[in-house]
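Fold Annotation — chain and its backbone

Encoding — discrete vocabulary of local shapes
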Amino acid sequence: MTSSPHTTGKPVNPRPEPDVVRYTTGERPWRRENTAPAATPVPADPTTETSGEATPDPASVASTPAVPADPALGAPTKADLTARPTPPPYLVGEPPVRRAATPPVGSPMVRPPTPRPRSGWQSLAFRMTGGRWNPGPGERERREREREAQIATQLRGKHVTAFFCLKGGISKTSTTAATSIALADLRPDPVFAIDANPDAGDLAERLVGDKLSGIAALARDIDSIDSLEALGRYTATRGRLTVLPGEPNPTLGDSLCAADFDAVLQVVQRYYSFVQVDCGTGVTHPLMEGVLRYTDTVVIPAAWSVTGAKRAAETIEWLRGNGFTHLAETCIVVLTAKDIVSGAVDKDAVLDYLSRAGDVVVVPADPHVADGALLDWESLQSATREAYLDIAAAITRRFDSRRKDA
């Protein structure tokens, strides 16, 4: 066969000249979004001898970067020339943007510290290791902390708690005084206690140790009270607890009526949102009508004796039958072990008999409570303090309730 005059004896170099195929910036074939037509391939020379080998695609060859010949490595192989390099990731479409998860607004940037234990072996371990090992509070202490947090619940609005029962002599004033101390010690807002017993109440004696008078004089001078300082002339204080004494003169006390209590409470609630009221035993007394008009929670003292349990149950029924259904359903019965009762009294039956109340709290017998003198919180037995704290927590759990009887 006669060779073509244009054919040389040299082997065909499959590498095109550098300027055979060029791409502009917008015509790079490896970009996915490129819709421009591919460059027109250069036609092969029909007179070129290929010795049976396929002629490489100029477009693919053009996209292959030139591999410089290294004398030490020899000439580039066919695989080196035809391998298509992986395009850089920033050229293949839009790369996914990886961002760290954004924490919610207001999330703490530090972990809350483990509370320092106050009692039990956990406290001993903390002190013995100089604080290097903090096992945290035990189960009992955690319950105590939860109760303290409950007692310190924020009060939105106003709340009046009334302590009364149809029977006297069952630690009503002691329960009012001790519960008021527990609340005042743990709450962020001050607590105000009113002695509204018309029968010579002694709440001030149990709280401050003095026999004082206040409610009758305040009701008489109510129009002159225009400041907290003016109100303070009729009250006594014990720490963060303020008490309005009752009227030791039974004649003056009996003359108080519902309108007097209305006027007194409206002035008190200008400065205090949380009010505790120690009432008398006469639910039909005119003063009691004014008390129940503002009451949000009722605490009913009771005793293990048969008459003490029955009078407490009758008090609940009286509330239900006189338009105070909500107070009857949410009332707190406090069983104080004051009198010695025989083994013939079935205490389980007494608890079952009073189960119609919202909560029943048992206060153990305590000589300091039975003394009837100035109430010292630290002189109470541990179990007695626990019971009064339970009463305080039960009261604050009723903050979000609203009276359905008006």
In short: The two ends are 122 Å apart (CA to CA).
